[in-house]
Amino acid sequence: MDNTLRRTPLYDLHLELGGRIVEFGGWQMPIQYTSILAEHQAVRQRAGLFDVSHMGEIEVSGPGAGPLVDQLVTNWPTQLEVGAVLYTPMCREDGGIVDDLLVYRLAADRFLLVVNAGTTAKDLAWVSEQAARLASPASVTDRSSAVAQLALQGPRAEAILDPLLTADLAALPFFHWLKADDLFGHPALISRTGYTGEDGFEIYLGAKAAEPVARGLLRAGAAEGLTMVGLGARDSLRFEACLPLYGQDISDTITPLEAALGVFVKWDHDFIGKEALLAAKERGLTRRLAGLRLGQRAVPRHGYPVVADGEVVGEVTSGMISPTLNQPLALALVPPRLAELGSRLAVRIREQDIAAEVVKRPFYRRARN
Amino acid sequence: MDVPEDLRYTADHEWIRVDGGRGRIGLSAFAQDQLGDIVFVELPKVGAAVTAGSAFGVVESVKSMSDLYAPVSGTVVAINQSLADHPEQVNQDPYGRGWMIEVEMSQPKELDALMSSEAYAQSIQSAGH
Question: Count of domains in chain A?
Fold first, then answer.
């Protein structure tokens, strides 16, 4: 395997646990340990532990930090209280998506941007470039190498993690974070966030703490059925929950409005790309993300044509046979008039047009108490 | 990895079990393991012609799609219908319930070009690790 690829601090643990290593976003990551489907079900039914240390972390601080992050993203980070987190697209001037990310408000003038692995270098350059334009100073620091990240996801995640902390995890609301001083002897930042559609946590640690904490969690969670989960199930879990994957459902040639992420665009503040998005809205969109269910068993995949009345009208951005629902489902960009619920389309798979219907997104929504 | 001795193999990881003029065809244990969870198998119809070395169907796992190549030429006389609803049988029992098609061979001599279990076992050892 290409030795310019990077490894997370858990690489040896992945090998020890039988992880099958693939290249992803410039990293050597486990795609599965046992079976993608088994790992998927473990997260839906019990709990799974993911190494997501390949994700990038960019810290923005200083008097200009608030104005800078507000400029950078379509959502509105300075509206957050300290202790809260938001999800947001980050756009170019033309409205295309540079990346999608989480923004943590660490302090009044300190924010943590958690970005995709494959885009970290691009994002860092972009954020630094914008910082240089601002009147008030903000420092931009790449923390990616120093920070490891684990995701603990699934209905039993809280029951596993709570006894290990002095803080009351049950009191931590969705999209909020807290600091733990002693998670198996290591400090950690823990947020109730995730990329699976389940309840769960993302745990940020110093790189050296990753392995002992991962081992500790696996031990502590064994009785609850905690399982290591690779990137394969991470993709199928996020797909069912209709959480976009950068480079697949969204990219620098797709806008947040097209990607049905309009709810994360806050028009009451200024941000890069706002004019382009407003103009696009004014003109009317030419394509929009829709959820499709195929009428027969087949596997729709990224890039497959979407057809209406024999003509290609769009394409699949993500698709698979949903492990939870056991149905062939797809996300696709299609003309807005064809994106309405119940709309009849087809997906072209190996020259054959398989009938499909626009259905509600997300495909999977967890039962809440 | 299990490589039964009574079968012959292609470099593309299909196996064939010969019984008279017919051959039953499937995917090796090594191949199903490499593919991971198989979620869909597309097979030809009974009566279709298949050609040695050409694709006769498709197997899709969660992450990838691969063509299935015919070890021999001939006419499809049976397909494993149960794979339509239970493609996971290819993972669970690749040489048994995971079989794919049965072919009436038109050129049985083609069998000579296939690998013995020994040769195949060796080839996956050098390819896999």
Answer: 2
